[in-house]
Specification:
About 90% of the residues lie in helices and about 5% in strands. The chain starts with 5 loop residues before the first strand and ends with a helix. It has a domain of about 100 residues. It is built from one helix and two strands; from the N terminus they run ββα. The chain is rod-shaped. Strands 1-2 form a two-stranded antiparallel ribbon.
Length: about 140
C-alpha cells in the first residue's frame, strides 16, 4: 500500500492525484486487456464452433463412407458368390462334357478295334480262299 505525505489540508494533493492517475491508467489498461481477452475468447469460441461443425461434417462423411464400404463389401460378396456358383456350374458342365466325349471316344475306339478285328478276319478268310483257289489251280494242272 502506498503512503502519502501530509500537507496543510490533509494529504499531498499532487501525490494523491498522481496515485489516482496511476490507478485510472492501470484500470484503463486492465479494461482494455479484458476487452481484448473477451474478443479473443469470442474469436476462439467461433473457431471452436467452426471446428465442431467440421468434426460433425467429418463424422457424417466417415459414417457415409463406412456405409458405402459396407454396401460395397456386401455387394462384392454377393457378386463373388454368384461368380463362384457360375464357375462351379461351368466346371461341372465342362467335366460332364469331357466325360461324355471321353466315353464317346472310348466307344468309338472299341468299335474301331472290333471293326479292325472283323476286317482282319475277312482279309484272312479272303487270303485263305485265294490260297485254296491257288491250291485248286495247282491240282487242275497236274491232272
Amino acid at each position: 500500500m502506498r503512503k502519502f505525505d501530509k500537507s496543510l489540508n490533509g494529504y499531498n494533493v499532487h501525490q494523491v492525484n498522481s496515485f489516482v492517475d496511476d490507478v485510472v491508467k492501470n484500470v484503463d489498461e486492465m479494461i482494455d486487456k479484458m476487452k481484448q481477452k473477451d474478443r479473443e475468447i469470442e474469436h476462439l469460441r467461433k473457431e471452436l464452433e467452426h471446428y465442431k461443425d467440421m468434426e460433425t461434417t467429418l463424422n457424417r462423411a466417415i459414417n457415409l463412407a463406412n456405409e458405402a464400404a459396407s454396401k460395397l463389401n456386401t455387394s462384392s460378396m454377393v457378386e463373388s458368390d454368384a461368380i463362384i456358383n457360375d464357375a462351379k456350374r461351368n466346371a461341372n458342365r465342362i467335366i460332364n462334357d469331357a466325360l461324355l466325349k471321353a466315353e464317346q471316344l472310348e466307344n468309338d475306339s472299341a468299335r474301331m478295334r472290333r471293326n479292325i478285328i472283323t476286317f482282319k478276319r475277312r482279309i484272312r478268310n479272303l487270303i485263305d480262299q485265294q490260297a485254296d483257289i491257288i491250291d485248286d489251280l495247282d491240282k487242275v494242272d497236274m491232272e
